[in-house]
Write a structure and sequence with these properties.
Distance between the termini: 46 Å
Shape: elongated
Largest sheet: 5 strands, antiparallel
Order of helices and strands: HEHEEEEHEEEHEEEEHEEEEEHEHHEE
Number of helices: 8
Strand content: 25-35%
Length: 310
Amino acid sequence: MLKLYLRWFDREPVGALLPAKSSRELIDLDALGAFTAPRRTRRYRCVDCGLLETVHVYPAGDHLLQCQQCGSRSVDLQGPPFLTVQVRHDWLPGVLSRLMVGESASPAMLVHNRVWHLADIDTPRGQVAVMLVRSGWQCDYTEVAAVLRKFGRPRQIVLTTSRIEQEELNSAGRVVIPLVSVAKLDAQGLWLERETLIEHYLRGVNQARKLLLHPTLKSDQQLWFELGPDNAWVRVNNRTVRLWGKQRLFVASIARAHVRNQPHRRLADAVNDAGYEGDVRSLHQICSRRDFREVIGIADGFVWIRDDVQ
């Protein structure tokens, strides 16, 4: 049902009238608050200019109808009155914002009925700003990209209502994700798959990082770090950290995950690959040196080789 709703949400112009009972899905969404209350509507044709138009009108106001184009009061009513609704464009960003950070959350509209800042969420890479872009056919993605840059947050998730990738939105630190890939909608409400959202973001960051040729990979495969011979060292952004003993196997396990295009590695799996015994839950248990912990990230039971090392 989400794909159908997004077609209504993206419809141009904003405020277009929809038959109030055109489908079961619309009735269900109306009950959720996604549409305005049904209003009495008449369809007319202007005798003077020929415009065919649909407008809201009060029960006793049919005689007051005039052409929206030329102003003529000579109009022919087309068929009996019926009920229409309009999409409430504040409903979707509002629900998404509350699903991310709680019932008191409220999205900020950056471009009228086009771009919203939904929330800031925590990920293993740090806090990320989540945006929503309404991808109607009139959308100027160059303008949207400029607004996202001016927002001033280097890390962004951009949810779009279209599955078509827009090159104008691509940027370092910004990951564009179609909403339909991380959310579901049914008669009970909207559901956001938060873990999938973060996974998509981490995978996107992994693919967009500054690339450095890795000596153990094929010539057409690149990563942002290097491992030395026998995994004796790891180098990130010209920062070289020496590795000793099981540290080499630990870091190599993480590196293999990145080679397989996995944005992070489970700490428990990397620990097992390295042959550590006992309950290892922190990097300090693996290496007490600060430089080691500055190139290896850890959060929520996952580890990775950082790409933001200075």
